[in-house]
């Protein structure tokens, strides 16, 4: 599904994981230019993307967002 959204809309996706859960999320940029993803959008839990090493980049390279690889 994320590949179709990338093709249709150009959105980028990463995988995330914590001690309780894991998933795929769309990469967003806030008004200040910081990257984040919605871990649980229904409950408004957003996490910042600080380092590219913490995520598997599914649809692009982290260099696209000037992050370390």
Structural account:
It contains 1 helix and 5 strands. The protein starts with a helix and ends in a 12-residue tail after the last strand. It has 69 residues and is mainly beta. 12% of the residues lie in helices and 36% in strands. It has a 5-stranded antiparallel beta sheet, with no helix packed on it. The mean pLDDT is 90.
Shape: globular
**SSE topology string:** HEEEEE
Spatial strand sequence of the major β-sheet: 4-3-2-1-5
Major β-sheet annotation: 5 strands, antiparallel
Number of extended strands: 5
Roughly how many Å apart are the termini? 25 Å
Q: Helical residue percent?
A: 10-25%
Structural class of the helix and strand makeup?
A: mainly beta
What value does the Rg take, in angstroms?
12 Å
Low-confidence stretches: none
Mean pLDDT: 90
Strand content: 35-45%
The number of helical segments is: 1
């Amino acid at each position: 599904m994320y590949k179709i959204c990338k093709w249709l809309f150009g959105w980028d996706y990463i995988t995330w994981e914590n001690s309780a859960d894991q998933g795929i999320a769309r990469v967003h940029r806030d008004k200040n230019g910081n990257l984040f993803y919605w871990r649980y959008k229904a409950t408004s839990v957003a996490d910042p993307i600080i380092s590219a090493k913490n995520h598997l980049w599914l649809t692009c390279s982290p260099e696209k967002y000037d992050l370390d690889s």
